[in-house]
TrEMBL record:
SUPFAM superfamilies: Thioredoxin-like. The keyword Cell cycle does not apply. Transmembrane segments: none annotated. InterPro entries: Glutathione_peroxidase, GPX_AS, Thioredoxin-like_sf, Thioredoxin_domain. GO terms for molecular function: peroxidase activity. Residues 10-177 form the Thioredoxin domain. CDD domains: GSH_Peroxidase. This is Glutathione peroxidase.
């Protein structure tokens, strides 16, 4: 059995034995430029997700605008976008207040943004460790993972795939279909 297949099987077994929410989503994270923490399972129960590793000073940072548009388009269809700010590629602002300003003011982000956390390597947070094991680890900022509400289906899209690319929106639509 390949490592990725074994990791996917582990994710499925974990989800089946611990209810509808898989362990890799049953995590607490602090919101960007806030003292408030959220548990992904509690906050996004029953929702399909688009999970993205972000950075405020990256060439792909303008994707925030399209991510927000995708969020607005699908948010009433049991769907949410979660941005994981990260400085793994040395492009996140050192000050969370500035990173928050870039997201919320400059790009009008209303979807959930989380405080900077590691998304690659041994220090990656549990959510990104599982996403990488099931698909690919982020090779840069703005990698996108479409995740079914039960965590059993995960599709990966690299940095160059824009949030409104038909390949990505088809993956979202496929999860929303009855």
């Amino acid at each position: 059995m390949t490592a990725k297949l074994l990791a996917s099987a582990t994710l499925l077994i974990s989800a089946a034995t611990h209810g509808a929410c898989p362990d890799f989503l049953n995590q607490d994270y602090r919101k960007l430029h806030s003292t408030e923490s959220i548990n992904l399972c509690e906050a996004f129960e029953g929702k399909n997700l688009l999970i993205v590793n972000t950075a405020s000073h990256c060439g792909f940072t303008p994707q925030f605008k399209a991510l927000e548009a995708v969020y607005q388009q699908y948010k009433d269809q049991n769907f949410a976008v979660i941005g994981f700010a990260s400085d793994d590629f040395k492009q996140e602002d050192a000050k969370e207040a500035k990173a928050a300003e870039i997201c919320y003011i400059n790009y009008g982000v209303t979807f959930t943004m989380l405080a900077p956390t590691a998304v690659t390597g041994a220090d990656a947070n549990p959510t990104f460790k599982a996403l990488a094991a099931a698909t690919e680890a982020p090779g840069w900022n703005f990698n996108k993972y479409v995740v079914s509400a039960d965590g059993k289906q995960i599709s990966y899209f690299g940095s160059r795939v824009k949030p409104d690319d038909v390949k990505l929106t088809r993956a979202i639509d496929a999860l929303a279909a009855p």
